[in-house]
């Protein structure tokens, strides 16, 4: 195994305040069902169709880094891929182990995205769909991206997700009216958009780093990758107040998905939906 693991693990220090917030949030166990309601269905359907555009054919090896309880890992395994799933949260690994019992092609372990236990150039594609949310330090995000690029074979695709800089205002405040339960959100939003980090509103609440589209592109290219696509995942559909009902109706769901596809690369609208998704290639000469 050529992964120089000891050296990289030494660069990841003790749990800092942000990591404690992340662990507290995911310890609630709510991530397992997050993609099941209307909002989650829209995110999952769109993410899988965007990723599928550049996936190599099965049985290629796909690394799902920061893969949570494994919804995407299970999707990939069902398509015939060999999946290396890694996540920082022990509960997520345990949940996937239970869910994947008897499912061939999935290996899972606890691992930090900044110090992966996988060999160099061992994956045909890499999913980095969560770690960039929770690394407020630019240096840590660069380390995670470089780690993902290290385990990626030359010519392979890296799929990196980020939360839009305006997600909290558009989706949280305007769409979900979170200020009715947490009035402090209105006082925090301007600063959160300025610095790119929205703090937790209560103990165990979600907190995340956010990106402008050009910021995400710059971080990936700065790590030596070639960005070939960057799109809005959900588009404007997420802001609808009755999205659960709409996603259950075939006509309404089709309209929401068609809208997301039609607007996904419109420069003025890329940041409108909660998530950005970039596709980047590791150059053959890397």
Q: Helix count?
A: 11
For the biggest β-sheet, the strand order reads 3-2-1-4-5-9-8
SSE succession: HHHEHEHEEHEHHEEHEHHE
Strand content: 15-25%
> Can you tell me the CATH topology?
Rossmann fold
The overall pLDDT average reads 91
The total of beta strands comes to: 9
Largest sheet: 7 strands, mixed
Structural classification: alpha/beta
**Under the CATH scheme, which architecture would be assigned?**
3-Layer(aba) Sandwich
What does this structure look like?
The structure is a single chain. By secondary structure, the protein is an alpha/beta fold. The chain has a single domain (17-57, 118-281), classed as Rossmann fold, CATH 3.40.50. It has eleven helices and nine strands. It is globular, with a radius of gyration of 18 Å.
Topology, pairings included?
Elements: H1 5-11, H2 17-26, H3 38-52, E1 61-65, H4 71-78, E2 82-87, H5 90-99, E3 106-110, E4 123-128, H6 138-151, E5 152-163, H7 167-175, H8 184-195, E6 197-198, E7 208-209, H9 213-222, E8 226-232, H10 243-248, H11 250-263, E9 275-281
Parallel strand pairs: 1-2, 1-4, 2-3, 4-5
Antiparallel strand pairs: 5-9, 6-7, 8-9
